[in-house]
Write a structure and sequence with these properties.
By secondary structure, this protein is mainly β. 2% of the residues lie in helices and 40% in strands. It contains three helices and 59 strands.
Length: 743
């Protein structure tokens, strides 16, 4: 409680006016009356009639009849109940509600709000001092409005609730520079929820661009904003019912606000809505916002967009906010926002996508414009535990995308009318951890060497995926290991001229370990950001570089043959056999060696191995073999499987089936000298042709074979990275499989 100022005790019966040398004046509100001398209404009327920057402060005495414990909490404040909308503010003005606690008493002490930090950068979020001056909007449509040519208008330290429309509306002419600071909007002066029937029916703060205006830039900062029927804060176009060119939206700057449980009376709005250009929405906490009617683009934390006819949805910044628990998305960019940045936000636990990017519809049939949403950079955010995808590029028309349209799979093209031009996501082919260095390789698109994705920024994140549970249960077209949500940003690489990437990140301090999962996004030079790619499990470099792994049937027994290019601390080998190519992962294999087969320790010299399988086999059956290496540190690496069909003992040259097996290794990389072994069988009495095709379907190699079992080595060092197909064809058999070459 602050001390009472005796000057104002003796002055409560008069309306105090103090003039400055420049004719600016200070008008002091000394009662809670709706009108008349000493009222807030009269102070605004007087200020509107006086040129220059005026001030309104408050010194309402404790004896005022509307000084009370209004919610039964034990704290007291002054309530002004309006009989009609306050006069439009048409001159420069500073309304200082905080002056009441200085001039009379801090009768409502303490703070409300979550506090703590917001955003990836952990920006300190203030708590909010409870207020002494409360305005009951009394179900009026626009109780506080800035209009005309007013500039430099500041409304500070005021609480407003129970408005029948927008509680505070900024809708000037040629004026600029409106600020709402340290206000309670939609809540009571002690921060509590108004009773049913006493909440603001529409927006808490609406900045509206009107015909003839030169600009409308409204700043809302350090405010506690909740329970409003529409958005907590919104920037709107000129006349929503009858828009006239130019189709422009007001600009809002929203910083350090706590925005919650808004939208209960809306079908299209969110916690904070920026429907214009140059909006800055940062350092806010937005949670539990909702929608009465569950339309697309509603019930989220933050929205950029909203009107397909707007001409200036660009250069918006959404930075270092935290959005959680919202009814649909955390953040949405919808219908024509271009050139926007979504940076370092923490977006989690929302009941739709974390970040939704959508055109809503490709062509607006009302305003006859294409609704492009592109060039929107989404970078270094933290997304996790959302029901939908972490980032969803959505192309579903009209209102059918409440939870996004799920995974948009790579297609190696860009489509300008689609969200962020359908930018393809990265594919991580290798993630190897050595100490604090994470080695990464991969490509953008469906295959390596996609020049369309050259010079793209590939960002890497620790994924929220735990390796078991689907991280996005609302996504039906995703399969294990699922498309990730990036929880912790690690760093980035830049793709080369062919859309491939390779490099190392220093991950010191991230606590990253083998078995953790990572994911990634790609952003092209035009700033189109993709969805997250598939999760990739982190491994450590194998102590063995295996150059070949085959099996044949010799002298009545299976013989397993393998070669290494190099070995590091390799103490030995184990060989496992099953009757199906999934037996190893299902723990249905047997180990055919009783003792570990000795390795070569550490050597850079190629080494050849073979081992005979002495377990019983059945003629004409196919068996599958896995090879396991084991290092001094206990690291194990599994290779395979490879198949072997046992011939008829009466005629070992008789082969009952023609069959093409999967090649090994796949993909072909530098570590295996760009070579792979293709296993196949050709039945008795047939010849067959093995053919290799590139991704365009062009034949690049072909070889012919007679009846028998083969393990054919294909060496691809002279070919470019990409997808290749191998096909086995005989008069009774035709089968094609795919392999990947990465350089």
């Amino acid at each position: 409680m602050k001390k009472t100022n005796p000057f104002f005790i003796v002055s409560i019966a008069i309306f105090i006016i103090a003039f400055s040398a420049a004719n600016a004046a200070t008008y002091t509100v000394i009662n809670t009356n709706d009108s008349g001398a000493g009222s807030l209404r009269e102070a605004i009327i007087q200020a509107n009639g006086n040129p220059g920057l005026d001030n309104i402060d408050f010194a309402i005495p404790l004896a005022d009849p509307n000084y009370s414990n209004w919610t039964g909490t034990g704290d007291f404040w002054w309530k002004i109940t309006l009989a009609s909308n306050l006069p439009d503010i048409t001159e420069d003005l500073d309304i200082d509600g905080l002056s009441q606690s200085t001039n009379i008493a801090d009768s409502n002490p303490g703070v409300v709000g979550t506090g703590g930090t917001v955003g990836v950068d952990a920006i300190a979020l203030p708590q909010y001092e409870k207020l002494e001056i409360e305005i009951d909007g009394n179900d009026l449509t626009e109780p506080i409005r800035i209009a005309g040519d007013a500039s430099n208008v500041l409304i500070e330290g005021i609480c407003i609730f129970n408005s029948g429309g927008d509680a505070i509306l900024t809708r000037g002419g040629t004026g600029t520079g409106y600020e709402i600071r340290k206000c309670f909007i939609g809540v009571r002066a002690d921060g509590s929820e108004p009773a049913a029937g006493f909440k603001n029916e529409s927006a808490g703060v609406r900045a509206n661009w009107s015909a003839g205006m030169s600009s409308n830039i409204t700043t809302v900062d350090e405010c506690y904003i909740g329970y409003n029927g529409h958005s907590g804060v919104i920037g709107s176009r000129n006349d929503e019912d009858n828009p006239t060119p130019p189709y422009i939206g007001a600009t809002i700057i929203a910083e350090y606000n706590e925005v919650f449980e808004n939208g209960w009376n809306s079908d299209s709005q969110d916690g904070i809505d920026g429907n214009g250009a140059d909006n800055i929405i940062r350092y806010n906490l937005c949670y539990d916002n909702k929608s009465l009617i569950n339309n697309a683009g509603s019930g989220g934390g933050i929205e950029i967009g909203g009107y397909s006819d707007l001409d200036n949805l660009s250069n918006n910044i959404v930075e270092n906010n935290t959005c959680y628990g919202n009814q649909n998305h955390g953040i949405v960019l919808m219908r024509r926002p271009t050139g926007d940045e979504v940076i370092k936000n923490v977006v989690y636990g929302n009941y739709g996508p974390g970040i939704l990017v959508t055109n809503r519809h490709y062509f607006d049939p009302v305003f006859l414009v294409h609704t492009y949403t592109r060039y929107d950079k989404i970078t270094q955010n933290s997304t996790y535990d959302n029901v939908g995808l972490g980032i969803d590029l959505c192309h579903v028309e009209w209102d059918d995308y409440l939870n996004g349209d799920e995974v948009t799979f790579n297609n190696d093209i860009k489509i300008d009318i689609n969200a962020n031009e359908d930018m393809d996501f990265p594919v991580i082919t290798e993630a190897l951890l050595t100490g604090n260095s994470l080695s990464l390789t991969g490509y953008i698109g469906t295959a390596p060497d996609q020049v369309l994705f050259a010079d793209s920024r590939v960002e890497f994140f620790i994924s929220s995926f735990d390796g078991v549970i689907d991280p996005n249960p609302g996504v039906s077209n995703d399969v294990y290991p699922y498309h990730g949500e990036g929880k912790t940003y690690l760093g980035f690489l830049t793709s080369d001229a062919n859309g491939n990437f390779a490099g190392n990140l220093d991950v010191t301090g991230f606590g990253l370990g083998v078995g953790d999962w990572i994911t990634s996004t790609a952003t092209d030079p035009a700033f189109n950001t993709s969805e997250f790619g598939e999760n990739k499990e982190i491994d450590i470099p194998s102590p063995v570089v295996l150059s070949s792994f085959t099996a044949d049937y010799t002298d009545g027994s299976p013989n397993i043959i393998w070669s290494t290019q190099s070995e590091t601390n390799n103490i030995g080998w184990n060989i496992y056999r099953g009757e199906d190519d999934e037996d190893f992962q299902n723990d249905l294999v047997i180990r055919i060696n009783n003792l570990m087969i000795p390795g070569s320790g550490t050597t850079s010299t190629p080494t050849d191995y073979n081992y005979q399988d002495n377990y019983d086999v059945i003629e004409n059956n196919t068996y599958w073999y896995w090879l396991e290496s084991r290092s001094n540190s206990g690291q194990t690496t599994i290779y395979g499987p490879i198949p072997l069909t046992i011939p008829d003992s009466e005629n070992e040259d008789f082969f009952p089936n023609t069959l093409l097996h999967s090649n090994f290794p796949n993909p072909l990389t530098k570590t295996n000298n760009f070579t792979t072994t293709i296993g196949f069988e050709i039945k008795e009495g047939e010849t067959a042709k093995l053919s290799i095709f590139n991704a365009k379907g062009q034949l690049i190699e072909t070889r012919s074979f007679t009846s028998g079992i083969y393990n054919e080595v294909w060496e691809a060092s002279t070919y470019s990275s990409g997808i290749y197909f191998y096909r086995l064809e005989s008069k009774s058999y035709l089968k094609t499989k795919r392999m990947l070459l990465i350089k």
